[in-house]
Specification:
Distance between the termini: 35 Å
Bound molecules: guanosine-5'-monophosphate
Largest sheet: 5 strands, parallel
Radius of gyration: 19 Å
Number of helices: 8
Order of helices and strands: EHEEEHEEHEHEHHEHH
Shape: globular
Helix content: 40-55%
Amino acid sequence: MSKGILTVISGFSGAGKGTLMRKLTRDYPNYALSVSMTTRAPREGEQEGRDYFFVDTDTFQERIRQGQMLEYACYCGNYYGTPGDYVQEQLEAGRDVILEIEIQGALQIRKLMPDCLLLFVTPPNAGELRRRLEGRGTESPEVIARRLARAAEESEGIEAYDYIVINDDLGECVRQIHSMVQNARYTPARQETLINEIRGELNSFSKGAE
Ligand code: 5GP
C-alpha cells in the first residue's frame, strides 16, 4: 500500500483555518487531522484532545527532550507542536494526514519530509483579516495587534509554499484543498514505484529487441 500524503496547511491567524479544517474533515472523512499540543490556555468552547492537547510548559519541554515532537515552534509566547507518533502511524496506514500549523513548523516538516505538500491559506486582503480577527471576539486588542504583526512577518515566507488558497468562499476553498492533495499523488516523486516499474519493463523490452 502506498503511504498517505502529508499536507501542511498554514495561514495567517484569522484566515479561517479552523473553520476550513472542520469542513474539510466533515466533507472528506478520510483525512486524518493531527491534534497539536500547546501551552496556550484553551479558548471558550475548545476541547482537550479535539482542538489541542493543552499542557504546561514543563510537560511540553519534556516531550521535546524525549524526541516525541515531529516539529514545534514558539508562537506569540506559547509553544505549539505536532506529536510524531500519530502522524507516522496514519501515513504508514495509507491515510492522508493534515497538519494545521504555522510557518516555522511547516519549514521543519519540509526539511524532514521533502515530499510533503505545503498550502498557505489567506483571506482575499489584509483588511478582511483584521475584520475577522476583531470580529472573533476571543482575543484582546493587544493579542490581535501581536497576531497582525506576526502575520506581516509570516507574509515574507509565503514563497516557501507549494500553493496559495484564497479563503473567500468556504465550500470552494475546501474543494480546492482536496483537489490539490489529489493532484499531489501524481507528481513523479510520489510515483517512484510506478516509474521504476515502467523503466524496468522498457529496459527489458529494448534488451529483447537487441
Ligand atoms: P491558535 O492559538 O490560533 O490556535 O494557533 C496559533 C498558531 O499556531 C496558528 O497559526 C496555528 O496554525 C499554529 N499551530 C497550531 N498547532 C501547531 C503545531 O502543532 N505546530 C506549529 N508549529 N504551529 C501550530
